[in-house]
Amino acid sequence: MTRKSGLSDEIKYFIVNALACFEKPSAVAKAVEREFSIKVSPQAVEAYDPTKVAGQNLSAKLREHFHRVRESFRRDVDDIPIASKAVRLHRLDEMMR
Description:
Layout: E1 2-3, H1 9-20, H2 25-36, E2 39-40, H3 42-46, H4 60-78, H5 85-96
Helix pairs in contact: 1-2, 1-4
């Protein structure tokens, strides 16, 4: 059975965290099923992404959490050299030589 509402706060935050880290809704739906033994549709998951039309009505608390996690994720990714396109291109160039 697919659930669209009535999710616990723990599951909602799990979904928001994953989406904020650029996970695809289908992957998040599968992760929710594995982690919590609850089936949710990718469309229901998408409602927790405030950057999507489906997530326009996300609560202010979850919206703020999403943006905090996304900002942190982006900042942390910037600290990983291979995440930089310039670094990847430089390494590929070295390998080609």
